[in-house]
Amino acid sequence: MGRKKIQIQRITDERNRQVTFTKRKFGLMKKAYELSVLCDCEIALIIFNHSNKLFQYASTDMDKVLLKYTEYNEPHESRTNVDIMEVMEEGERRGCYCVVPCRRG
């Protein structure tokens, strides 16, 4: 049985927002771990909550990954919330939920 689809918007209730943050933060870190193991890649995840508390995950040494990031000069993929929302909206229009352009339509 599937879960109810929620609307992605700010949670107004402080307690519910904190519970959701804690659960989803762990889920995000778990996904980062799985991606690093399955695809043999380095991942650095940095999160600041609403009160500026820092949470971090790194598949290897965080300082080494950040140094590699700051020294990287090649063109690379970079996305923001707006970019992700556009991809999701396009997917809904086409009936395809891909992060890369799909061949349908």
UniProtKB/TrEMBL annotation:
InterPro entries assigned: MEF2-like_N (IPR033896), TF_MADSbox (IPR002100), TF_MADSbox_sf (IPR036879)
Main subcellular location of this protein, as a coarse class: nucleus
Domain MADS-box, residue spans: 1-61
Pfam families: SRF-TF
GO cellular component, one term: nucleus
Gene Ontology biological process: cell differentiation; positive regulation of transcription by RNA polymerase II
UniProt keyword annotations, A-Z: Activator, DNA-binding, Nucleus, Transcription, Transcription regulation
Protein name (database record): MADS-box domain-containing protein
Coiled-coil region: none
Membrane-crossing residue ranges in chain numbering: none
GO terms of molecular function: DNA-binding transcription factor activity, RNA polymerase II-specific; protein dimerization activity; RNA polymerase II cis-regulatory region sequence-specific DNA binding
Record localization: Nucleus
